[in-house]
């Protein structure tokens, strides 16, 4: 069974090797027929502390790292974002 991958925004990177990611989903309300936004916070493992507050990242399901941390940062996305943010030294 494939692992779920979610996209969200980093809202906290204060703890060591952990980020808090806000994942927002949209759906149509069954009665009002309006688009409703719901969000949820996930704790994700960030081994190298590369994700920063405000970045859009991908997280995937993994083994439990702690009581609340069962997601991990997808490294290829974080490394690409970090490389794109750095200007070449000239």
UniProtKB/TrEMBL annotation:
Q: Does the keyword Ribonucleoprotein apply?
A: yes
Q: What is this protein called?
A: Small ribosomal subunit protein uS17
- Keywords for the protein's UniProt record, in alphabetical order: Ribonucleoprotein, Ribosomal protein, RNA-binding, rRNA-binding
Q: Which NCBIfam families match?
A: PRK05610.1, uS17_bact
Assembly information from the UniProt record: Part of the 30S ribosomal subunit.
Record's family? Belongs to the universal ribosomal protein uS17 family.
Example of a GO cellular component annotation carried by this entry = cytosolic small ribosomal subunit
Function comment? One of the primary rRNA binding proteins, it binds specifically to the 5'-end of 16S ribosomal RNA.
UniProt cross-references to InterPro entries, sorted A to Z: NA-bd_OB-fold, Ribosomal_uS17, Ribosomal_uS17_bact/chlr
What species is given as this protein's source? Methylobacterium gnaphalii
The record's annotation in CDD domains points to:
Ribosomal_uS17
**What GO terms are given for molecular function?**
rRNA binding; structural constituent of ribosome
Mind listing the GO biological process terms from this record? translation
